[in-house]
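Subject: sequence -> structure tokens, single chain

Hey, anyone have a minute? Need the predicted structure for the following. Not urgent.
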Amino acid sequence: MSTAALSPLARLTVAPGDPLLPGATPVAGGINFSVGSRAARAAWLVLLDPDSGERLAELPFPEGQRVGDVFTMTVLGLTPGQAHYGYRVEGAGIPGAGSVLLDPYAKLIAGGERWGVRPRYRSAVPEAEFDWQGVRSPGLAAEDLVVYELHVRGFTRHASSGVRHPGSYAGVAEKIPYLLDLGVNCVELMPVFEFDETDNPFHDPRTGRALPNYWGYNPVGFFAPKAGYAAQPDREGRQADGPVRELKRLVRELHRAGIEVVLDVVFNHTAEGDHRGPTLSLRGLDDHAFYLHGPDGAYLNLTRTGNTVNANHPLTRELVLDCLRYWATEFRIDGFRFDMAPILTRGPDGRPLDNPPLLEAIAHDPVLARCKLIAEPFDAAGLDLVGRFPAHGRWSEWNVRFLHAVRRFLIGRPGTVGELAARLIGSPDLYAGRGPAASVNLVASHDGFTLADWTAYDRPHNAANGEDGTDGAQDNSSWNSGREGPTADPEVLRLRARQQRNALLLLLTAGGVPMLLAGDELGRSQQGNNNAYSQDNELSWLDWTPTQQGAELRQFVRDCLAFRRAHPVLRRRRHPSDTPPAHGGYPEISWHGERPWQPDWSDESGLLVLLLHEAAAADTVLLAVNARSERVTVEPPPPPRGTAWHLFADTADRSHPAGAEPPLGTDTPLLLDHHTVAVLVARPEAAPPEPERSAKARIQNGS
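Reply:
Had a minute. Here:
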């Protein structure tokens, strides 16, 4: 199709391009386009109508301007928003030859603005200008972080959210006062790379309707923010760069509030799937550079999604690094959580490499030097690198062993006291030499039971996912507290509420970086569904309707977070030592039981008492955990000289504001009810009251 007969594109001319500017980049007088393909013998830039997606023109990349395997040119007279675009390539053995391909470097992907409607994707060029208003990243130390994991749509989609723009980036921004009040200082956003939420082969068994891919772990483009999460369209109503500006505004306002932003990024697979999936971009440009294949040529499916990204191929490494740098600079993102990160350790045959070049490059990249790097240290093929992920002095890990240790001890499984002890002091057995902050601790995440469901269900109830209940983790280290699912039994409900407080108190006083799942502070339930990736409804959305239980639990979390901020002994940079100091006094960590210095490490132990002491900060905290089904009396060790024990929290009763904890009483034992956690803090003893003097004596002394 010729441009000569088309208006307003008739006056476009082609000039030499810059191959070092991948993707579409506005330059003086036009837009520079560059795309690499080793297999293509020829390539075309396809210009598309921004409204309909119909082809307007095809411009061949001049052969004389090809540099190596990079096709490049500058289209003079073309401006952002004037036309959408894609690429068409021809060559031997290219999958989907002739298809219009998305630019793998597209900074905006149009065609999927309407959530739930099958997209007609096309690449677009967003406007570059954005006013950051002088706001900078908070630059928080890792040990001070409190992470809050949320789904952009689900966080405010429920009618009870009370926001003007539910289910959007703008909706999350409206909830910043809530996040500040709660006390979190880092938001981890579940995937916001453009993804196809209509891509799911399963159907609702009740209605027969196709289920969505609600979570978004199927990226279509690595550089483009999810258009369906934007609330505000552009002037023409097309949402042309709505998602870019709106996500930047969210980041800016979170930073203004002192809250950092971590993105959950998916580089282990893409929405192209296996040979049955669509050819959207990478497959049509360089299938073998971007995806792993077996000896028979079939796609290796180490992710259980159809394909596996060839992460350590040089071209893929360059793509991933460019992507991370873009988000860190253009969106000022503070860090990244890498989904199924062991995939990024695998070589061209799918086997793990001793020193994966991609992870080393990310760790040492100067642009990413201040970004937090968090690995989900296991993948769908069974590679578990918890405590062994190649860290290069930079990487931390989602510590799922913390989750299971806390859950299993609290529900009374034997042989768990020793592991819980290690987890509560920052997992030195896993992260020796790396410090507690290498451990991102959690008791629930998007993947698995919510915290409330952990106390209410022994097994998953996933029938709504349309997979005959076969999906989701089968061992959730859970206990239904005596009844499966909803109940009106007041004793069961009291126990469930207490167990939730137990887990939260252990999480928020443990060494390492705590991560909360959005809604756990309100007692959110998914009715036993532990794999709600396909549930875009009230099951997954956060219900903001006020309840007494939710208000009480939220206040408990607020108190715990304030207590954590007030006590440096809970936020150490290095693992504590149990060696007593030469000058006497408590070591940094000591273990106790019903009596001081008498811990019970037996397999049947249901009691753990630990004392955390930081002499330089004059900070001492005692934690006592009773997972037994009966009450136990604990004699606390004496507090440091000049101090007295005060009670911060007793999960069978209540918590207190940090700094206003009531005294426990001299020589008073600590009574722990069944399934209870208590925290004491040593505070300076109150000065004895001045003796009462007679009025005559006061006058004689001039007082």
